[in-house]
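User: quick one, fold this
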Amino acid sequence: KSFELQHYAHVLTNKDEGEVSVWYVAIKDTPKLTSADLPEDDDFRTGYRPVVFVDGLDESSVRDIDANIQTLKDFALAHPTAGIVISCRETYKFDSRLDLFTPLYFEDLTSADIEKYISQFEYADKIREYITGQDVYELCKTPIGLKGIVEFVRKHTMREVEIPRNQVQLYESLVYNRRVCMREANKEVIEGYFKKTDEALSKIAIVMVMTDKQTLSANELDEALASDQTLVSYCTYYYHNLFIQDEKGMWCFENHAFKEY
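Assistant:
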């Protein structure tokens, strides 16, 4: 959903007509939303229609979610000409406070969507054979699952890898691919540290879930790993393809799915 929002924001920003001014706010970077993060009255006098993108409303903490929803609702009521696009998982699907907004949903990929994507590859028959022969069709209904399976079938035909059989194996394989990138960039990495680093990333994920956070500061990361500087360096330096630092210097998983995994 973040990709789709960023793409749409990019399209609007680059429209030849120049009819809109785009505002993009990611909740993971702005956990407590205020009116200062949104267009002000002067922005409505420029001749452009402000369009606000709020990415990841469900990533608000428990203590901030009520205030964030109210801030968006107040802004919408005060500025009926503004465009507002909010991305959110289904956590607040039936929340009456969002009735002011029109719900749109990302549906699973259909069989036609899946076939259209598969058919462009020269080894399409092998992909179809694998999907029908294994219990993985459900994984094909999401882009990350479909792309992952197609890539692993390609590598399997080259006798490079075994194909994942379920969602857990798929995530493990995706993480493994990050390791391959990491090894290429850092030849000095010792294989034995992978297990320790996996355990460290698990600790980080648990801390983030239990504290209801999407990001950690350097001090919080240090505390989560009990000030073990070796593990901190491996998570933050060697695992830069998986565990990243955002533009505000906060540490987070590249993909929320990895944290959940």
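User: anything notable?
Assistant: The chain has a mean pLDDT of 80.
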